[in-house]
Write a structure and sequence with these properties.
This protein is mainly alpha-helical. The protein has 10 helices and no strands. It has 2 domains: 58 residues, Arc Repressor Mutant, subunit A (Orthogonal Bundle); 135 residues, Tetracycline Repressor, domain 2 (Orthogonal Bundle), CATH 1.10.357.
Protein backbone atom coordinates (compact mmCIF):
# COMPACT_ATOMS: atom_id res chain seq x y z
CA UNK A 1 0.00 0.00 0.00
CA UNK A 2 1.85 3.04 -1.24
CA UNK A 3 -0.28 5.60 0.59
CA UNK A 4 -2.04 4.18 3.65
CA UNK A 5 -5.74 5.06 3.75
CA UNK A 6 -5.41 7.03 0.51
CA UNK A 7 -9.04 6.51 -0.43
CA UNK A 8 -10.20 7.65 3.00
CA UNK A 9 -7.88 10.56 3.61
CA UNK A 10 -8.83 13.95 2.17
CA UNK A 11 -6.37 16.48 0.81
CA UNK A 12 -7.19 18.62 3.85
CA UNK A 13 -4.89 16.37 5.86
CA UNK A 14 -1.86 17.28 3.77
CA UNK A 15 0.54 18.97 6.15
CA UNK A 16 3.83 20.85 6.13
CA UNK A 17 6.93 19.22 7.66
CA UNK A 18 5.99 18.35 11.24
CA UNK A 19 6.97 20.54 14.13
CA UNK A 20 8.87 18.88 16.96
CA UNK A 21 7.02 20.96 19.54
CA UNK A 22 4.99 19.03 22.12
CA UNK A 23 1.45 18.08 21.07
CA UNK A 24 1.82 19.41 17.54
CA UNK A 25 -1.11 18.15 15.40
CA UNK A 26 1.20 17.92 12.39
CA UNK A 27 3.64 15.79 14.38
CA UNK A 28 0.85 13.50 15.58
CA UNK A 29 -0.25 12.92 11.98
CA UNK A 30 3.34 12.35 10.84
CA UNK A 31 3.90 9.81 13.61
CA UNK A 32 0.76 7.87 12.74
CA UNK A 33 1.61 7.91 9.03
CA UNK A 34 5.13 6.63 9.76
CA UNK A 35 3.79 4.00 12.14
CA UNK A 36 1.38 2.73 9.47
CA UNK A 37 4.23 2.20 7.03
CA UNK A 38 6.58 0.56 9.52
CA UNK A 39 3.98 -1.67 11.18
CA UNK A 40 2.81 -2.96 7.80
CA UNK A 41 6.38 -3.54 6.59
CA UNK A 42 7.91 -5.06 9.74
CA UNK A 43 5.10 -6.02 12.10
CA UNK A 44 4.00 -4.22 15.24
CA UNK A 45 6.29 -6.05 17.65
CA UNK A 46 9.44 -5.18 15.68
CA UNK A 47 8.94 -1.42 15.67
CA UNK A 48 9.59 0.92 18.59
CA UNK A 49 8.64 4.53 19.18
CA UNK A 50 12.18 5.63 18.34
CA UNK A 51 11.94 3.91 14.94
CA UNK A 52 8.65 5.66 14.26
CA UNK A 53 9.98 9.06 15.29
CA UNK A 54 13.02 8.65 13.03
CA UNK A 55 10.82 7.65 10.08
CA UNK A 56 8.66 10.72 10.71
CA UNK A 57 11.73 12.98 10.81
CA UNK A 58 11.21 13.80 14.49
CA UNK A 59 13.29 13.37 17.64
CA UNK A 60 12.34 10.46 19.89
CA UNK A 61 11.11 12.83 22.59
CA UNK A 62 8.48 14.14 20.17
CA UNK A 63 7.00 10.65 19.84
CA UNK A 64 6.96 10.17 23.60
CA UNK A 65 5.35 13.59 24.00
CA UNK A 66 2.38 12.41 21.97
CA UNK A 67 2.25 8.72 22.81
CA UNK A 68 3.76 7.36 26.01
CA UNK A 69 3.61 3.79 24.68
CA UNK A 70 3.26 1.97 21.40
CA UNK A 71 -0.16 0.81 22.57
CA UNK A 72 -1.33 4.42 22.88
CA UNK A 73 -0.14 5.09 19.35
CA UNK A 74 -1.97 2.01 18.09
CA UNK A 75 -5.15 3.19 19.79
CA UNK A 76 -4.85 6.56 18.05
CA UNK A 77 -4.32 4.77 14.74
CA UNK A 78 -7.34 2.58 15.38
CA UNK A 79 -9.47 5.65 16.14
CA UNK A 80 -8.29 7.28 12.92
CA UNK A 81 -9.00 4.16 10.88
CA UNK A 82 -12.56 3.96 12.20
CA UNK A 83 -13.11 7.69 11.74
CA UNK A 84 -11.88 7.58 8.14
CA UNK A 85 -13.89 4.43 7.40
CA UNK A 86 -17.07 6.02 8.77
CA UNK A 87 -16.46 9.28 6.92
CA UNK A 88 -16.15 7.29 3.69
CA UNK A 89 -19.47 5.56 4.44
CA UNK A 90 -21.15 8.88 5.21
CA UNK A 91 -19.88 10.51 2.02
CA UNK A 92 -21.04 7.59 -0.13
CA UNK A 93 -24.52 7.43 1.42
CA UNK A 94 -24.92 11.20 1.17
CA UNK A 95 -24.73 10.84 -2.61
CA UNK A 96 -27.82 8.61 -2.66
CA UNK A 97 -31.19 10.13 -3.65
CA UNK A 98 -33.04 11.51 -0.61
CA UNK A 99 -35.44 8.98 0.84
CA UNK A 100 -34.04 6.04 -1.15
CA UNK A 101 -33.32 3.76 1.79
CA UNK A 102 -32.61 0.72 -0.36
CA UNK A 103 -29.94 2.66 -2.24
CA UNK A 104 -28.41 3.75 1.06
CA UNK A 105 -28.27 0.18 2.36
CA UNK A 106 -26.70 -1.12 -0.85
CA UNK A 107 -24.20 1.73 -0.85
CA UNK A 108 -23.36 1.04 2.78
CA UNK A 109 -22.57 -2.59 1.97
CA UNK A 110 -20.53 -1.92 -1.17
CA UNK A 111 -18.58 0.91 0.44
CA UNK A 112 -18.04 -1.08 3.62
CA UNK A 113 -16.74 -4.12 1.75
CA UNK A 114 -14.42 -2.00 -0.40
CA UNK A 115 -13.18 -0.04 2.61
CA UNK A 116 -12.10 -3.24 4.34
CA UNK A 117 -10.63 -5.01 1.32
CA UNK A 118 -8.73 -1.90 0.21
CA UNK A 119 -6.97 -1.65 3.57
CA UNK A 120 -6.60 -5.19 4.87
CA UNK A 121 -2.97 -4.74 5.93
CA UNK A 122 -3.69 -1.57 7.88
CA UNK A 123 -6.86 -3.05 9.40
CA UNK A 124 -4.89 -6.04 10.65
CA UNK A 125 -2.24 -3.75 12.15
CA UNK A 126 -4.57 -1.50 14.11
CA UNK A 127 -6.81 -4.35 15.24
CA UNK A 128 -4.02 -6.89 15.70
CA UNK A 129 -4.82 -7.47 19.37
CA UNK A 130 -8.61 -7.22 19.08
CA UNK A 131 -10.34 -10.23 20.58
CA UNK A 132 -13.58 -11.52 19.12
CA UNK A 133 -15.12 -11.75 22.60
CA UNK A 134 -14.68 -8.04 23.33
CA UNK A 135 -18.32 -7.32 24.15
CA UNK A 136 -17.79 -3.55 24.30
CA UNK A 137 -17.14 -3.59 20.55
CA UNK A 138 -20.81 -4.35 19.98
CA UNK A 139 -21.99 -1.51 22.21
CA UNK A 140 -19.55 1.21 21.22
CA UNK A 141 -19.08 0.78 17.49
CA UNK A 142 -19.55 3.79 15.16
CA UNK A 143 -20.15 1.53 12.15
CA UNK A 144 -22.96 -0.29 13.93
CA UNK A 145 -24.41 3.06 15.04
CA UNK A 146 -24.62 4.10 11.40
CA UNK A 147 -26.39 0.87 10.54
CA UNK A 148 -28.87 1.45 13.38
CA UNK A 149 -29.58 4.96 12.09
CA UNK A 150 -29.99 3.63 8.55
CA UNK A 151 -32.39 0.88 9.63
CA UNK A 152 -34.42 3.20 11.82
CA UNK A 153 -34.76 5.63 8.92
CA UNK A 154 -36.04 2.91 6.60
CA UNK A 155 -38.42 1.64 9.27
CA UNK A 156 -39.79 5.14 9.91
CA UNK A 157 -40.34 5.52 6.16
CA UNK A 158 -42.24 2.19 6.21
CA UNK A 159 -39.80 0.65 3.76
CA UNK A 160 -38.57 -2.03 6.17
CA UNK A 161 -39.70 -3.79 9.30
CA UNK A 162 -37.34 -4.87 12.09
CA UNK A 163 -38.57 -5.30 15.68
CA UNK A 164 -35.05 -4.71 17.05
CA UNK A 165 -33.00 -2.41 14.78
CA UNK A 166 -29.92 -2.52 17.01
CA UNK A 167 -29.78 -6.30 17.12
CA UNK A 168 -30.39 -6.37 13.38
CA UNK A 169 -27.52 -3.92 12.87
CA UNK A 170 -25.19 -6.09 14.96
CA UNK A 171 -26.15 -9.14 12.89
CA UNK A 172 -25.59 -7.24 9.63
CA UNK A 173 -22.22 -5.87 10.76
CA UNK A 174 -21.05 -9.29 11.93
CA UNK A 175 -22.15 -10.90 8.67
CA UNK A 176 -20.39 -8.29 6.54
CA UNK A 177 -17.16 -8.44 8.54
CA UNK A 178 -17.13 -12.25 8.61
CA UNK A 179 -17.88 -12.52 4.89
CA UNK A 180 -14.92 -10.29 4.05
CA UNK A 181 -12.71 -12.21 6.50
CA UNK A 182 -13.62 -15.45 4.75
CA UNK A 183 -12.61 -14.03 1.37
CA UNK A 184 -9.30 -12.80 2.79
CA UNK A 185 -8.57 -16.12 4.53
CA UNK A 186 -9.31 -18.13 1.37
CA UNK A 187 -6.48 -16.40 -0.47
CA UNK A 188 -8.61 -16.28 -3.61
CA UNK A 189 -9.14 -13.09 -5.62
CA UNK A 190 -12.09 -11.23 -4.19
CA UNK A 191 -15.17 -11.01 -6.40
CA UNK A 192 -16.37 -7.83 -4.75
CA UNK A 193 -19.53 -7.50 -6.77
CA UNK A 194 -20.68 -11.02 -5.97
CA UNK A 195 -19.76 -10.62 -2.29
CA UNK A 196 -21.63 -7.33 -1.98
CA UNK A 197 -24.67 -8.62 -3.85
CA UNK A 198 -24.86 -11.71 -1.62
CA UNK A 199 -24.77 -9.55 1.49
CA UNK A 200 -27.27 -7.05 0.08
CA UNK A 201 -29.69 -9.86 -0.79
CA UNK A 202 -29.41 -11.31 2.70
CA UNK A 203 -29.87 -7.94 4.40
CA UNK A 204 -32.84 -6.87 2.26
CA UNK A 205 -34.63 -10.18 2.74
CA UNK A 206 -34.06 -9.92 6.48
CA UNK A 207 -35.81 -6.56 6.83
CA UNK A 208 -38.61 -7.58 4.46
CA UNK A 209 -39.29 -10.96 6.10
CA UNK A 210 -40.96 -9.32 9.09
CA UNK A 211 -43.64 -7.76 6.86
CA UNK A 212 -45.35 -11.17 6.84
CA UNK A 213 -46.30 -10.79 10.50
Amino acid sequence: MDAPMATFRSSALAVSPPSASPKSPAAAIALMDAAERLFIERGVERVGLADIAAAAGLPARAARGHYATREQLLQAMQDRFVSDYCAHLDEAMARCPPGDWSARLRTFVRTGVDGYLDHVALHDVVFHDQRSHDRHAWQENPVIERLVELLEGGIAARVWVAPDPRLTAVIFFTAMHSAVDRVIASGEPADRQRLSQTLIGYFERSVQWWTRF
